[in-house]
Protein: HTH cro/C1-type domain-containing protein
Amino acid sequence: MSRAERRAKITPEGRARGARLRTERDHRGWGRRELARLLLDAIDDRQKPSHVTVASHIKEWEDGGGISAMYRTAYATVFDLPEAELFAPTQATPPLSPSDSGEVRAVQELSQPYSTDPMGTVGVSPVPDFRDDDMRRRAALQLLAALGAGTAIPPGSLEGVLSGIDDALGNPLDLDEWERTVHEYGQLLITRPAGALTRDLTSDIITVGELLRRQLAEPERQRMLRVSAGLSACLAINLGDRGDIRAVRTAWATAIRAADACGDTDLRVWVRGRAAQEACWTGRPTSTVVALADEAVTIADGGPSAGLARAHAARAYAAVAQGDTAQAYASLAKAKRTFDGLPHQDGQSVFAFRQSQLRWTESYVHALSGDRRAHATVAEAESLYPPDAHGPRSNLALMDAAALIQAREVKTGLERAITALERHPDAATAGRASLTGQILRTLPPEARRLPAARELQALTASA
Structure:
């Protein structure tokens, strides 16, 4: 039977059932592939299809297609709902159009309130309405199930458990706490493994999207937009390390819109400057890097800020990668001048531009341009990062390896690169992938047949 014929056989009851399944999935913040893996885990069958196949089935089921008894039971297990209740005839309301990526859906949700209407754009909530006791009990069951299984807490379930207390307190909006949360994420991104914060960030973004739908006073709304920009940017950085380029573009676009809407000049500059840096590591075109950096410079209008320093750093990265050494050193000099005009900054954070970031940028330019100072610069930069900052330290070790290869110490450089990858397997950042690619591309033809070169190639492919 063709797909068109199957669609023609879909009944109104099937569409309602599919809408219910899609709504339940959306409430938990799961993409179809994630749900497919969970369904397969719940099936006791040795001959299971691939999660890609099941993900395509999920789309058909959510469109109203028929579901076998085996998958009905698996759905009930995964959603932690009685099967009879989940598949009872119901008139479901149309849910949000789902995205293959729960993280993309979260940032798209967050971007909706930036309209001219002070109330924002109101759509179907990705978080259930927990005003009745049944929904609160269901949220509690979801929370307990997640804790018992050692899995991530589904978005919205903890809020549901606590909603009764919040109702009694008048649902206060603690802006200071949200700003501290953004600051904390900025610090954690330096030390946590690549991609480790995606679920937490997604949950917080969904919550902030709900808060932005409140009728807030304008000062409160501006601060919440600032929070949303920071969270979206942190998510973009985290997704970049996972290699999800489409999701990265979506998250950065939302962060830029939110920063522009809040009117904070330094934040507008920072979002573009940091996005330009990340664009270098995720392999976006040089024209994109330059355009983002130029926007940051224009908005800054000469005012020193961490974002402006990052914009100049991004220009330096792009130039040296293209072999334009003169432009790279000119941009590096501008980054140094901007850094000299910054106030003292405490602690490592993606929102800051400290001496460690300056030396990191200097190390990159020196390493890729064959500057003899590269080894000393890398050593100085490494000394400025805490021991648990595996991502930056691993990348600096790769820069040292690149410098050794540029100096014709090929075998030593390859061993240095292999050691860096093996020592910190949790530091599989976008920057590391970019640097390893640079090393492999700059190897002399005769060196590419060396066992160490093949090993580095294999480590890169498996990362």
